[in-house]
Amino acid sequence: MNISLRQLKAFVTVAESGSFTQAATRLHLTQSALSGLMKELESQVGFRLFDRTTRQLSLSGAGVRLLPLAVQVLNDIASFEDEADKLKDGRLGDISVSVSQQLAASFMPYFLADFKKTYPETKIHLQDCSIEQVIQQVQSAEVDFGIGPDRVLPDDVEATPWFSLPFYAVVPKNHPTARQQKVSWRTLFKEPLISLTGSFNRHLSEELPADLSERIMAPDYEVNFLSTALGMVHNGLGVSLCLPYAGDWVRQHDLVMMPLVEPIIHRRFYLYSRKNKSLSTIAVLFKDYLLNLPESMFYR
């Protein structure tokens, strides 16, 4: 058999209308064209679908059995087309993004919620992990793209610049520098220093003068998470540093933050993607949304 959707639509419309004349009007066909479609369908199945008299048109026994199936096929096709349209224009789809932990815990929830106001049917899978894992997941194509600070990349991963933020000092409210508009690295480093483990200190040391570089590599305390460092600052164990997007966390710990100067050092962040990997429409829309955010959004 080679049954067409036009034939099925003609069959269902005639059955619903109870009249070839009304069905032809609904389908914008001539009666002869509609009759031709029905003859073709009955020839395909090998039996009559309607019992016809001069005064009445009714479904045959076989027609009664096949009508629900024809309706289901047409509904399934309509659903298929609707889903395809949603995928095409970005109203539907899944996005998988790998994000370094501090970013994922600070402003990413806000960005996700804001994006879903426009695309509510989108499912976004957020993988929060270390920057090293972000790069690995992008390289292995486990995610659509990744987000994190500057890193040396393998050959099959490329980086799109996103934003750049200066470092800030974090001190208790009663600290001598708490009322200052800014503080130098040298002044901050005279205090007990609470810093993060891993590559954080190493990358920062490469941008500081030699004496300050030695200090950042020898902090008084090292912790894995910024939230731990902030808790320690709150309890008077020392001072720390962060980026502006951690402002909400700093205030929640009743602490003060101010720009670090002499020198001013920025941390650059990127959207990472695997080379030659195509993205779905919705993933492209989300990536464009992120890239077009104003810089003020990262100062929380």
TrEMBL record:
Keywords: DNA-binding, Transcription, Transcription regulation
GO-annotated molecular function: DNA binding; DNA-binding transcription factor activity
Pfam families cross-referenced by the UniProt entry: HTH_1, LysR_substrate
UniProt feature coiled coil, ranges: none
Keyword ATP-binding in annotation: no
InterPro entries found in the cross-reference section: HTH-type_LysR_regulators (IPR050950), LysR_HTH_N (IPR000847), LysR_subst-bd (IPR005119), WH-like_DNA-bd_sf (IPR036388), WH_DNA-bd_sf (IPR036390)
Record domain HTH lysR-type: where: 3-60
One of the record's GO cellular component terms: cytosol
Family: Belongs to the LysR transcriptional regulatory family.
Name of this protein: LysR family transcriptional regulator
Organism of origin: Pelistega indica
